[in-house]
Design goal:
155 residues, Arc Repressor Mutant, subunit A, mainly alpha
Length: 155
């Protein structure tokens, strides 16, 4: 039985290597999508993503480029709003700004995403009940049982 190699075929790898990670990162910084870049190179998007992720340095550089492109989308959102001259243009600008900010959030959620705050609460949203146990009053058998229970919680 033949094992299938993971990653893009050699021809696709050559095309991506020919363009190089520098050019790909430049395009990402300019706001181009991975789909558009893959189409330009003539490879599948999955092949491009696999090629980038296969090498740690390429992966880090591509992530940094996408984060930088998020700034571009944010700047575009602000620019389109400030350039609108009348109510119609402003309404259109708001829609575009919303889309641009969504793009920024999609490519750099840490910088442009919604803040997520988790809160632990007890029953019906109330406080969490805490209990303390006086271990000094327990028998050896009770202590052993407690130890068994605690060991299961860790597993």
């Amino acid at each position: 039985m033949n094992k299938k190699k993971s990653g893009p075929p050699p021809i696709a790898q050559n095309k991506m290597a020919e363009m190089g990670i520098d050019a790909i990162c430049d395009k990402l910084c300019e706001g181009e999508t991975l789909t558009a870049i893959a189409k330009e190179i003539g490879v599948a998007v999955s092949g491009l993503v696999n090629w980038i992720e296969k090498d740690q340095e390429r992966a880090v550089r591509a992530r940094e480029a996408r984060t930088m492109s998020a700034r571009l989308w944010d700047e575009k959102a602000e620019a389109v709003l400030t350039k609108s001259k009348d109510q119609f243009e402003l309404a259109k600008a708001r829609e575009l700004a919303s889309h641009y900010r969504w793009r920024a959030k999609a490519v750099a959620p840490r910088d442009y995403g919604d803040k997520v705050q988790q809160e632990h609460v007890g029953p019906d949203g109330g406080p969490i009940a805490l209990a303390s146990v006086n271990l000094r009053g327990l028998t050896d058998e009770e202590l052993q049982n407690m130890q068994k229970l605690l060991s299961k919680a860790v597993d």
